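ok so I'm stuck.
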Amino acid sequence: MIRKFDFLVIGSGVAGMSYALQVAESGKGKVALVCKTTIDEANTAKAQGGVASVTNMKVDNFEKHIQDTIVAGDYISDPAAVRQVVECAPEGIRRLVEWGVNFDKKENGEYDLHKEGGHSEFRILHHADDTGFEIQRGLIEAVRRHKNIKVLENHFAIEIITQHHLGVEVTRRTPDIECYGAYVLDPDTKKVDTILSRVTVLATGGVGAVYASTTNPNIATGDGIAMAYRAKATVQDMEFVQFHPTALYNPGETHPAYLITEAMRGYGGILRLPNGEKFMQKYDKRLSLAPRDIVARAIDREMKIHGIDHVCLDVRHKDAEETKKHFPNIYKKCMSIGIDITKDMIPVVPCQHYFCGGIKVDLNGCSSIHRLYAIGECSCTGLHGGNRLASNSLIEAVVYADKAAAHSLEHISGYEFNLSVPEWNDEGTMTNEEKVLIAQDVREVGQIMSNYVGIVRSDLRLHRAWTRLDLLYEETEELFKRVKATPDICELRNMINVGYLITRQALERKESRGLHFTLDYPRHAYDQA
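replied:
not stuck anymore, here's the structure
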């Protein structure tokens, strides 16, 4: 089946929905919003902490936010991208509020701002401790109201369409690759539809599912990055995988692991060993409020030194009622497993959380493939550099959705549907009965990545990961050619692609920088774990 939409948006988090709303409001065409599962399941909904934006000009300013971002990124952020996001952030906040998103305010009407690790000022807007959920709720309601947006839930994008599908040889040196839409699996018919578009946007989120433990939902399998890479788009900074220092230690709950927000350390939480001893003073003068990469490595090292499964975050010294007011969901979650955070320390452990690399884009969100945009976590804008500053991701998604929308609206009149695109050909394939093999391979990818491409790496570990992923790649590609496309085989294929890219680019970086720490090129004497 062939379908046509002016704008094809793949992904329904804050980036995808923000873009869809802006182009739909222009009246310049119909929008298809492809959701891998339901519209409400996205990394956005899992974000607890908040959104970073300079709003209190009495004490804060753009230059402070810019400097904090560059320092956290280990001085390899793109200065133009940083300035664009920081200076456009207040307008992005205004737009979210206009779409119906609520942020907590004080009694005097000013925003109730939090401070998080790496920030020099209080500038984090939030909605209790479920900010992402509130943003997702507001945007979903706005999307559902809009007559120009067609929501396609439980549809799985398999490949983006380029000249390659017209029989043209496309390589990484091909100068004018164009995107004409995507092949998308329809859950009702079990057939792969051809969705033609004048503009295609990848907003598919992160890669957390390639690790054994992650705060991301299970759907975060790096689909957009893998599809773009196979289409010969440029990907960059894949080695920079962010591990959140404080996921709730609750064995058995790993996909997703429950996040203990950075805001809890900004609130005054102190990291301690299970015996109550503080340890961050050995690693950074900012103590528990150091940037995430430093804190995660410090915790990892302490766990190895002492042979323990977790460390603890302590807010017992804070007012109990205030703690419950600021962190109602964390309080409720911890109580459900017998931990009263007003009386007990919270067991925490580092866990894969965010991805700084992805599809390389310019200041307008344009990828290296013409008519293909990438926004949100699947993109690499240059904002984060070697390490994301807390709460910069949601605002990056909003700002780049705006820039991509403006750019595509300006140019869409020059784009036509390519009616020569053939339909998906699965003739001769069979129904896949080998589900057990796929499930086992998914687990193996997670173990490989967590064991060899985790917080602390080495060339030996990375080469071992490469060898094992290469074998899985060969087996999976052979299976993919023989069976009908299903979400599970496609996800496994994407996970292997992404794991390979992270490993390869980690091997290529011959230094420890930001989130990429390798024993072969250590930066600090204590970082020998």
